[in-house]
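Bug report (template v2)

What were you trying to do?
Predict the complex of my protein with pyridoxal-5'-phosphate.

What happened?
Run completed; filing so the output is reviewed.

Input:
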Amino acid sequence: MSLEELYKEVILDHYRSPRNKGTLNEADIELHRDNPLCGDEIDLYVDIKDGKIAGVSFDGKGCSISQASISMMTEKLMGMSQEDAEGLANTFKAMMQGEDPQDEDSLGDLVALKGVQKYPVRIKCALLGWNTFLEGLKSYREKHGEPA
Amino acid sequence: MSLEELYKEVILDHYRSPRNKGTLNEADIELHRDNPLCGDEIDLYVDIKDGKIAGVSFDGKGCSISQASISMMTEKLMGMSQEDAEGLANTFKAMMQGEDPQDEDSLGDLVALKGVQKYPVRIKCALLGWNTFLEGLKSYREKHGEPA
Amino acid sequence: MNANEIRKDFPTLDQEVNGHPLVYLDNGATSQRPRAVIDEIKRFYEEDNSNVHRSVHTLGERATLLYEGAREKVADFIGAPGPRGLIFTKSATEALNLVAYAWGRHHLAPGDEVLISEMEHHSNIVSWQLACQDTGATIKAIPVDVDEGILEFDKLDGLLSNRTKVVAVTHVSNVLGTINPISEISARAHEVGAVVVCDGAQAAPHIPVNVVELGCDFYVGTGHKMCGPTGIGFVWGREEILEEMNPFHGGGEMILDVWMDRATYNELPYKFEAGTPPIAAAIGLGVAIDYLNDIGMKAVHDHEVELGKYAMQRLGEISGIKIFGPRDADRKGGLVSFSFEEIHAHDVGTILDTLGIAVRAGHHCAKPLMRKLGVPATTRASFYIYNTKDEVDRLHDGLLQVQKTMQGGLGL
Amino acid sequence: MNANEIRKDFPTLDQEVNGHPLVYLDNGATSQRPRAVIDEIKRFYEEDNSNVHRSVHTLGERATLLYEGAREKVADFIGAPGPRGLIFTKSATEALNLVAYAWGRHHLAPGDEVLISEMEHHSNIVSWQLACQDTGATIKAIPVDVDEGILEFDKLDGLLSNRTKVVAVTHVSNVLGTINPISEISARAHEVGAVVVCDGAQAAPHIPVNVVELGCDFYVGTGHKMCGPTGIGFVWGREEILEEMNPFHGGGEMILDVWMDRATYNELPYKFEAGTPPIAAAIGLGVAIDYLNDIGMKAVHDHEVELGKYAMQRLGEISGIKIFGPRDADRKGGLVSFSFEEIHAHDVGTILDTLGIAVRAGHHCAKPLMRKLGVPATTRASFYIYNTKDEVDRLHDGLLQVQKTMQGGLGL
Ligand SMILES: Cc1ncc(COP(=O)(O)O)c(C=O)c1O
Ligand SMILES: Cc1ncc(COP(=O)(O)O)c(C=O)c1O
């Protein structure tokens, strides 16, 4: 794997200029998680309106893979229905675990992270934001009596 | 090592017809020892008069190596001075530990046991009687105020 | 399966010992290793050698994939529901001690009982003795029926009670060859709420094993008796039990975070694998398992039953021999323990060695069983996939020579 | 000594990673193995493979002689008075846990203190934490002077008291490279009657070691960091202390006799080696020690000091880099830990790997020290006998590339 294949320009771009960084004042999901292996940390904020993701932001620090992955995630999730968001998260996880999902096209730019597969230790970095989102969504639904 | 080299006729002879087997009624040294590894057991009896070994016998059970070694030992020790007996025991131990002592000639028939060297686990069998004798001699001297 | 073909995969077998072609019948102590295992260890050290888990570099990732791949193979091999409950240790002995420490020290109390059997290996006796010393619990043992060579199963109910916290029994006896009825024992033990530890050191190499069918809570094995390297063993445990257990060794890899005075622990199975594991040995064990799977464990067992039968027949022809264990070769692993009234086991072993035949002579780390059998030691011939009937014949002839040497004139 | 010649003995080094010749600078995690070690493991498995100690057959005797020969080599290598105090374990981690269990659990009590240091590896922290949990003792730590990268030695007297039962300190820090003044620490610790445990995992591979001069009571090492195989470590202990200690694991080989409810224990060192040991790995370690002795440990250290100096100089040229540990390369082992304000260690590690350079990025199993240094992780380049100044240059250039990638445009 060459440097260019792994550290694709789009990853570096999101790392250097993260999108949706900051806090949301009124968030339905607000969750802090970290990756004890490398010290990566994230605070995720999601605002849900009418079953759709009306706002999403994050704060945190960590390696380029985790930060770029989260930044790209926030862009993607914005405006999605809960179900579509959950589906996307699972598709992304499947790709990172080497499963080659059928709907990989839906991932768009996120496919840039595929190279991380080769570094199993780093897969956890790429998944940090997504796992935090899925966990947050689950608690949100339980709180609101929706089927998990 | 061939069967004939290891199980020399003299060893088998002592094993089948052990010399000086039995108890001594009046023994200065009387000691029971065993080799926990293989279950060999020995009772050694030594009668000392005027610094000389006036009588020696043994009882016990075990493998041919331990029993032949003890039987040959009793023959050799009979009549020896304490010092010579101790010297012989140490010469024998040296040989068994692969040290090629200068006075190996003094061992006579005992040289037949040299082949056991190749089987470190069995060296303990060959030494059982001798170590028991040295231990007994040491206590005897301590009891009688002689330098150990 | 063809033992004569299989032999060719085992370089050690192709040598002379004391001027005779080697007959290796000490597989109960340790098996030989096929070329595939030896070559993979060499290849690993030459190409992928690295530490596992926390490396972000290429060699580290390769080593980690191989090591975790080996874990999956072992878990599959014993029918475990998944690899998370499969912990690598250095030996079956360490595996039993892991359970006796990490579970035993935190669950046993005065008045509690540990039920083992009279046919246990020292590793499954002394490990529990030490746990009992530390906790005040006591040991009981299921007796052995010496004539039949089996556990006195009808005594089990009388021995089990709500005081019984652990039942720790061997799957296959290393002295008698007996295959114990673990699933029945598990069922009865679970009725009184005891945890079942099964020592599979002599089973996993020789018969198909499925921990779910056995119903045990812990299952222990060792690589060096099953074509794998020395220095690698394993214990599988039910995940629910492992989850709530204390760790065993403290160190790297088994933690999530560490402060000066406390730590949080990693998920299964890493919580129980502190420090750098025996990486190359684990990978070698994975290849050994591939090798055994290629043959098929049913075929392995069938071959050993056949050899066992033949050995019982040929050795039975020898006057003055006493054979221990079940008479029915179908009901036991492929080994035969025996003794002669007048000849010490060490002489048997040494004379056979001068004839190029390697067997075990001694107490086989089962002193309480020796006492029960009324002998200081036995001689044991234990078979594996590469042994042949010709070798059994060599053993038979060798034993006649032993008798000739020890009892008659040399007459060589 | 000539690193370019030595390299040829290490097959792993002769490969490309991601299209670049491998630069292996992760020796702190594990070293590579010379061909002599790999070949001996193969030869042993092909020719002498057998279990040790209780076999009376030829293969068993050969294996036993090789295994015990390895013990003597290790004992000599660390200046031990003899092999009886030298116990083989599977790793340094197991070795430290052996002391924490077999000594710690039977000598610590509420009110007692275990004194470690802030620069310990988790293996020398968590092992004692678990012992303290079981006994009610507490842990204290000698602080680290972050600027100097050394222990605050003047704090030692204030920390030691008659409550101190154990002082457990690393000989060489795996993060800072600091060589600690063990003989002074031993002397002071002995004044208050404490037992001294020295973690030599990062010392024995790199500097001459003499346990008598160090004055410690236990000394721990690990094979895989010193050219030996994985799965083998050791602890040397003073015989008087080992004699009166309880055993650790219960099982075969560590006993003299066993009854159902009790056992008597074997002499040293076997009392502490229950079960089948990592035979091949121990024999491989013996060959590794021959290999290191041929070079000479003084020469090994000199080479690493030279490389360390050169690395500090070249890395010091890079803007924005922060280097941890003693500035004076003479006073430390051959490793350099560093970080960049704006770049995560994992990105450094991964990008270097794409350039064929293997380093360690992470907390190095030393989380308390990371907290003290105020970083979540560092990058560590650790050297060994086969590393060269050219490789340090490759590291230097690689780090410039890391900065370019992470901070600027790609500009490749
Ligand atoms: C200072 C120190 N102590 C202990 C250990 C643990 O050694 P092992 O890898 O043999 O478990 C290491 C290496 O990881 C170390 O660097
Ligand atoms: C039944 C049984 N349990 C346990 C062990 C100990 O296994 P290991 O040699 O891996 O310590 C053995 C072998 O010696 C055995 O036969």
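What did the reviewer find?
The mean pLDDT of chain D is 96. The first strand of chain D starts at residue 16 and ends at 17.
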